[in-house]
Amino acid sequence: MSNPKYMSAEDRQLVALFAGLDTPGVSDALDRLGLHGQALGIMPLANYTTVVVGPAFTVKYVPASDPPGTVGDFIDNVAPGDIVVIDNDGRTDCTVWGDIMTQYAGLRGIAGTVIDGVCRDVNRALGDNYPLFTAGRFMRTGKDRVQVEAVNTTVAIGAVRVAARDIVVADANGVVIVPRARAREVAETARGIEEVESRIREQIALGKSLGDARAALGYHTLQSRG
Fold first, then answer.
1. Backbone phi, then psi, for 58, in 5-degree steps?
2. pLDDT over 70 (residue 216)
3. Is residue 43 part of a domain?
4. Quick check: 61 pLDDT over 80?
5. Which residues pair with 114 in a beta bridge?
6. Count of domains in the chain?
7. pLDDT at residue 2 above 80?
8. Range of the structural domain that residue 72 is part of
9. What CATH number does residue 141 fall under?
10. How far apart are CA 113 and CA 159, in angstroms?
11. Residue 171 in domain
C-alpha cells in the first residue's frame, strides 16, 4: 500500500471526528468497546498542551543487513498531517529519530512521531515543539545498526497493533491507537462519556457531593463494556 502525499478526504473526516477529544476520553471509549489501543510505555517528550490526531504512516525497523539499508528516507512519502509510527521493536540501544528528521518533519507539516524505541537530539524537538512520543531517549545512532524493513505495514507499538492509516491520538497523557474501521464508533462513544463527565463537573460545581453526582449520572458504568 502506497501512501498519498496528501491526506484523503476520508482521512480528514476521520481526524475531524476527534476534534476536542483527548487520550483519556478515547481510552475510556476503547475500554467500553472492548478494544485495546493504549500504547504501553510510550510517553510524550514534553507536557504538550494540545492533542495531536492523524492517520498512521507506519514504519517497521529491523536489525541492519550487510551492507546496511536505508534509515530515514521514508519521510519523503509521509503526507502533511500524518503521524509517523515507528516500530523499532522497543530497542533502547540505538535511535531511529534525531534532529534532522525533526526539522524535516516540521517543515513538511507532519503532525508528530510515535516510536516503540528511543529518539535523540531532544533539544531540537523541544525547541521546535515537535510532538514526539517514545519509549525513551538515547544518544547512539541507529545508522548501520537498524534499517527500514517496510512502510505502511502492520506494526506493534507498546503492545498495540497498528495498521497503516489507523487513527492516532496523542497528548501529554500518552498515545492511543484507534482502528480505522472503528473510528466513528470510538469517537461517538468518547463524546458520550465526555458529556456525562461534563455534567458531573457541573453538578459538583453547584455543590452536589461527588458520590451523589456520580451515582445520578451513572459514572461507575461509563467505561464498562456495553
1. -90, 145
2. no
3. yes
4. yes
5. 85, 133
6. 1
7. no
8. 9-186
9. 3.50.30.40
10. 17
11. yes
